[in-house]
Design brief:
This is Centromere protein I. InterPro entries: CENP-I (IPR012485). The chain is mostly helical. Among the domains are: 10-79, no CATH class; 217-289, no CATH class; 601-682, no CATH class. Helix content is 56%, strand content 0%. It is built from 30 helices and no strands. The protein has helices at 10-21, 32-46, 50-60, 68-76, 86-91, 107-110, 113-118, 123-136, 144-157, 161-173, 195-211, 259-264, 282-290, 294-316, 323-339, 344-353, 363-370, 378-396, 400-421, 433-453, 460-475, 494-501, 506-528, 535-552, 575-585, 604-620, 635-643, 651-663, 669-677, 679-682. Helix 19 packs antiparallel against helix 20 (433-453). The longest helix has 23 residues, at 294-316. The N and C termini lie far apart (92 Å).
Length: 686
């Protein structure tokens, strides 16, 4: 008698099913229906992984002791979690007609094309076979004898819709060969025989795709035509890549599956029907970059200009933005990012659309496209594009300034690279035009940055974006494109530098000082290359360096006595009031040292920690001392510490050890600037 034992896991259920498949019903010890229920429930709810799928298929496709009801139930609940291998497909060919796009390697069906076609005279299989053949038909499959056979079948089948549909697919390859009235009958649209199964399959794979992005890596490696994933029911405004108008020895991009095959067949590739598929197909992008075509570019431009004009007209008429625009902009941005060229139709659309833009929809795509605007006089660019974009974002976006600064970072980087890469191509009156445009751009961004910093509501992420902008300005000076030092050195405004020098954020302070150190290296490199800078620029930068060193290293904060020092633009009339205030707190406090490593409100506690780390290290090395330092160090307190039998360390050594300690903990900007500026540190003296 069969025992009703519930399987503990899917593997246990599969093992029970395999045993039951080879055991006659009267000899079984466990009820097979319980295992079948567990397998079908797991498949319906979660899908079957490749191992489980192979196990089930291996059972149902062989002669077994299971009854027909069980076999049918198992087949109807084959919901694969991942792409399906060729071996499984060949075992379940008839079933997989409802999911032709789910195959890991669709070419396995192409190898069976002749066998499948020869079975069309079997009426019970004809509709499914025509559907499958329509999905896998390529030009190499369309032969005169097959066209003749289809016409013969139609003569006796009284214009079977499935046959007419397949014949119309053949007509796309040989429009002049198929003649007569047969092909004009009512064509089948090849509806799927089990839409419920298909819908459930997509739901399972969509959930799995979110947790395992590796499922679709084969389609995303750039050398295979991109196909839609689980959400195939969504109608795309951008057509997919299909090639029908090919010649005898040409190759369709759909048949390319690897980089080696792409290289081998590059010269024989036929252009697809809709070249605008380039917006979302990486393989077509690669092909047209390697084999550019004026005709192809014009076709893409024509489609884009029409599509974008229609969307802009809807918005102008007050009908709002459609979902189609988002898809087109996403595709256009991907194409532009790959080719690094902004198409004229995109430029025209942006100029027309930005005054109507709500500042929120498709921000990433809009700003991504704006970042590829070619270099030209910025005042004109600002009038045509950025004034409207800034107004829309500031009025409506929740975090407007961070995204604006990020846009200008990308644009500045590309314009700088253009100046450096094309320095040798410019001469005469045109030589300074790109440089002037670049300076106009950076001046505009600096004005925007200053207004952001003066806004009390500016967030830390926005300030981080501002620092990233100046990091970019400094970094482009060291790129290979700037070997001729053609990219101008553009300094941040003094107000920006001093507002950030007194920040309450350790990371912001460190990054600012690292930026100043990078600028100093850039000045030194350009001077070595005999590049002369305006005296006002070098004097201003030297003032930044002097003030920073006076604040953090020399204990001469706010002093103007040194050459080029600005005293952080703190009026001398204010300083007596500051000194009086400090004396009310503690007579030992001094204004000139209140911003140094030991007493700076950002660095004080860290300096104490660094000194204690030095004491701990000395203790571990066996040095004995009677006392430890109690708080923030000064020149006087360190001298007293030595006299009292504590750690012996000079004021210079202490500061060096503090900046090294900070550097090992990710706060390297202070050390970088001091070692690039202070002569005794540059020369290795302490």
């Amino acid at each position: 008698m069969e025992e009703d034992i519930r399987p503990e896991s899917l593997e246990d259920a599969l093992s029970t099913l395999a045993e039951a498949a080879s055991t006659p019903a009267r000899d079984r010890k466990r009820k097979v229906s319980t295992a079948v229920d567990a397998i079908t429930a797991s498949a319906f709810n979660h899908g079957l992984d490749s191992t489980s799928l192979i196990a089930v298929v291996g059972i149902v496709t062989k002669k077994n002791e299971l009854d027909q009801t069980i076999n049918t139930n198992l087949v109807k609940n084959l919901y694969p979690l991942q792409r399906v291998s060729s071996g499984v497909v060949l075992l379940l060919l008839a079933h997989w007609v409802v999911a032709g796009e789910e195959l890991q390697d669709p070419t396995c069906l192409s190898a069976l094309y002749g066998v499948l076609f020869s079975m069309l005279d079997t009426i019970s299989l004809r509709a499914s076979l025509c559907h499958l053949l329509a999905l896998i038909t390529e030009r190499k499959h369309v032969k005169p004898f097959r066209i003749q056979q289809l016409l013969e079948l139609l003569r006796f089948a009284v214009e079977d819709p499935a046959l007419v549909g397949l014949l119309n697919v053949y007509r796309e390859y040989y429009p002049d060969v198929v003649v007569g009235s047969a092909s004009s009958g009512k064509s089948s649209k090849f509806t799927y025989p089990s839409p419920e199964w298909r819908s459930r399959l997509h739901s399972i794979q969509e959930v799995h795709a979110r947790s395992d992005a590796a499922i679709h890596t084969a389609d995303q490696n750039g050398f295979r035509v991109a196909r839609q994933g689980a959400k195939r029911s969504k109608i795309s405004v951008v057509p997919g890549l299909h090639t029908h108008c090919s010649v005898e020895h040409s190759v369709a991009l759909e048949n390319v599956d690897s980089v080696n095959e792409f290289v081998e067949k590059l010269e024989s590739v036929a252009l697809p029907d809709q070249l605008v598929a380039i917006l979302k197909d990486p393989l077509l992008q690669k092909y047209l970059v390697l084999k550019p075509s004026v005709t192809a570019t014009r076709r893409i431009e024509l489609w884009l200009s029409k599509a974008l004009e229609e969307e802009a007209k809807l918005i102008r008429d007050g009908l709002g933005m459609t979902s189609r625009l988002s898809e087109v902009l996403q595709g256009l941005f991907n194409y532009t990012r790959y080719t690094k060229i902004l198409l004229p139709s995109a430029v025209h659309f942006l100029e027309m659309y930005l005054p109507l833009w709500d500042g929120v929809s498709n921000t990433a795509e809009i700003f991504g496209l704006l970042a590829y605007l070619p270099i030209s006089p910025f005042l004109d660019v600002r009038r045509r594009f950025f004034s409207a974009a800034e107004a829309a974002v500031i009025m409506h976006a929740p975090e407007p300034y961070e995204s604006l600064v990020a846009l200008y970072i990308d644009l500045t980087s590309r314009w700088a690279q253009h100046i450096g890469s094309n320095a040798s191509d410019r001469s005469g009156a045109d030589a300074n035009t790109p440089i002037e445009a670049f300076i106009e751009l950076t001046d505009h961004v600096s004005t925007l940055v200053l207004s952001i910093l003066c806004n009390p509501t500016s967030s830390g992420s926005t300030v981080s974006a501002i620092l990233r902008f100046y990091q970019t300005l400094a970094a482009v000076l060291f790129t290979p494109a700037n070997k001729s030092h053609s990219i101008p050195i553009v300094l941040p405004p003094a107000q920006v530098v001093y507002l950030l020098l007194f920040t309450s954020s350790l990371s912001e302070l460190s990054r600012l000082l690292a930026i100043l150190a990078s600028y100093k290296q850039a000045f030194e490199a350009s001077i070595s290359a005999t590049i002369r800078h305006p005296p006002a620029t070098t004097n201003r930068f030297n003032g930044y360096l002097m003030d920073a060193c006076n604040l953090f290293w020399r204990s001469l904060a706010l002093r103007k006595s040194d050459a080029n020092a600005f005293g952080c633009f703190c009026p001398e009339s204010v300083q007596p009031s500051l000194r009086d205030y400090l004396e009310t707190l503690d007579p030992e406090y001094s204004l000139v040292s209140s911003f140094g490593l030991s007493q700076n409100h950002v660095l004080s506690s860290l300096s104490v920690a660094a000194l204690r780390a030095l004491e701990d290290k000395a203790d571990e090395e066996g040095l004995e001392f009677n006392t430890r330092h109690a708080g923030p160090a000064t020149r006087r307190s360190l001298t007293k510490l030595d006299k009292d039998g504590g750690l012996q360390i000079s004021w210079k050594e202490y500061r060096v050890e503090v900046v090294k300690w900070l550097d090992t903990r990710g706060v390297g900007g202070i050390k970088k600037l001091m070692y690039a500026t202070m002569k005794h540190l540059i020369q290795g003296e302490v």
